């Protein structure tokens, strides 16, 4: 998987196995206040994190679909075609291309979609091994705390990823040598948290609901590691 353009994304997978190829302007500002464990399936508050993921020494790589397996949009209909010339997104994209000429926003977003589902599913299943290589240390700590609390209370999550309705760029650019890309995901999920007796205490069994997440992925452009990691999460603004 090394050398794969999709891995350029992971982080992008540095998200989605199953949870997600995103936070700054819209969601990445740090307040310094401690936040409760983040639950990507029910709670929509922001989890502020520091951008240490890009410097991680973790060599684990989660296989994602190869670039050729990602359906590319027709010429003129890709992600970049929707970016207005001279806009903040256009400037940010150019910044990243100055240090990574192979960066492709279509491939990135395609990988981010996969990562988003991977991360959401892994969180619901309590799959720490799948989550760890995809998340920054801070985001992983928050997810792990939520999983541990769930296990301690003997709670389980019924989860179905119905589909992804939208994945769009919210922010992109360089912060020093750290490339960051924020993506807004609008997905349809079925989630229900059950207590030890099997009673639903959160969500609704069999009910499809729309969920909006804004996730930021980061990668150190000086590193030989092509993977992106999820460094910040938030719900809809």
Could you characterize what this model shows?
- It is a single chain.
- The protein has 237 residues and is α+β, with helices and mostly antiparallel strands.
- The chain has a single domain (5-235), classed as Nuclear Transport Factor 2, Chain: A (Roll), CATH 3.10.450.
- It is 24% helix and 25% strand.
- The chain has five helices and five strands.
- Strands 1, 2, 3, 4 and 5 form a five-stranded antiparallel beta sheet that branches.
- It is elongated and about 55 Å long.
- Mean pLDDT is 78; it is low at 9-36 and 43-74.
Q: What can be said about this structure in brief?
A:
About 45% of the residues are buried.
Whole-number total of structural domains:
1
Report the radius of gyration as a whole number of Å. Answer: 17 Å
Q: What is the H-and-E element order? A: HHHHHEEEEE
Tally the beta strands.
5
Q: Main traits of this protein?
A:
five-stranded antiparallel β-sheet; 237 residues; 5 strands; single chain; alpha+beta; Nuclear Transport Factor 2, Chain: A
Topology:
Layout: H1 5-9, H2 88-99, H3 105-125, H4 128-131, H5 137-152, E1 156-175, E2 178-194, E3 200-203, E4 209-220, E5 229-235
Antiparallel strand pairs: 1-2, 2-3, 2-4, 4-5
């Amino acid at each position: 998987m090394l050398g794969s353009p999709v891995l350029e994304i992971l982080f992008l997978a540095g998200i989605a196995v199953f949870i997600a190829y995103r936070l700054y302007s819209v969601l990445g500002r740090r307040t310094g206040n401690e936040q409760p464990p983040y639950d990507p399936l029910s709670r929509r508050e922001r989890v502020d994190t520091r951008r240490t993921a890009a410097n991680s020494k973790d060599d684990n790589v989660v296989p994602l679909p190869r670039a050729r397996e990602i359906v590319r949009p027709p010429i003129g209909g890709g992600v970049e075609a929707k970016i207005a010339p001279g806009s903040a997104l256009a400037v940010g994209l150019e910044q990243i291309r100055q240090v990574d000429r192979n960066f492709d926003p279509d491939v990135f977003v395609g990988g981010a979609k996969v990562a988003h589902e991977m991360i959401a599913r892994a969180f619901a299943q309590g799959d720490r091994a799948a989550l760890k290589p995809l998340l920054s240390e801070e985001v992983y700590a928050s997810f792990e705390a939520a999983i541990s609390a769930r296990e301690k209370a003997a709670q389980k999550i019924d989860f179905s990823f119905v589909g992804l309705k939208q994945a769009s760029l919210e922010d992109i650019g360089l912060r020093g040598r750290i490339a960051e890309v924020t993506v807004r995901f609008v997905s349809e999920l079925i989630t229900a948290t059950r207590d030890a007796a099997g009673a639903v205490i959160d969500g609704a069994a069999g009910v499809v609901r729309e969920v909006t997440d804004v996730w930021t992925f980061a990668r150190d452009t000086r590193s030989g590691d092509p993977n992106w990691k999820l460094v910040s999460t938030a719900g809809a603004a």
